[in-house]
Amino acid sequence: LKLSAQRARFSAHAVASHAAAMGGDTPSAEVQAARDKLKARLGDVRTGGKGTARRTHIAKHTNHAADDKQLQVQLKRLGCNAIPGIEEVNMFKEDGTVLHFSAPKVQASVASNTFVVSGHGEVKRLEELLPGIINQLGPDNLMNLKRIAESFAATKGGSKDDDGDDDIPEVGDNFEDVSKK
């Protein structure tokens, strides 16, 4: 049995060396170019040397529902309870913009000084929310309110000077003469 395995190995080696010497086993230039192109594109995808299996690429899928569930578990551990009846939450930034949540889910734990506001938040300018937000403004936002009032007064004052232009002109018989003026 040993002898036949050695003969088979020897004969396979002899056939391979004979084919290589005769030039019958070499690929054409076209095939070799395609192999080189493929090798350059894929690169080394083996984890070991020649003869080892290629590595399997496992795509990582993130599950946001699992993250949300873990967050809820931690909030429950802190003792956060939902606060019903909150219609909106406004967080004022130093640059004069407001982080506005409409119909958020608010949870709080006073003992651990933890407040959680979850929902869709939008960054808006203070001017966009102004009529209904005045009672929420604190002393630190008075400068922003003064700036808004000054810009509003400046635009109103500028329009009073141009009041004569907005009136309907008196047109006689020919309106084209009036429009050319």
TrEMBL record:
The keyword Calcium does not apply. Residues 154-181 are annotated as: Disordered. The keyword Transcription applies. Residues 65-130 form the NAC-A/B domain. Pfam families: NAC. Keywords: Transcription, Transcription regulation. It comes from the Eukaryota. Residues 162-181 have a biased composition (Acidic residues). Coiled coil: none annotated. InterPro entries: BTF3, NAC_A/B_dom_sf, Nas_poly-pep-assoc_cplx_dom. Part of the nascent polypeptide-associated complex (NAC). PANTHER family: TRANSCRIPTION FACTOR BTF3 FAMILY MEMBER (PTHR10351). Belongs to the NAC-beta family. This is Nascent polypeptide-associated complex subunit beta.
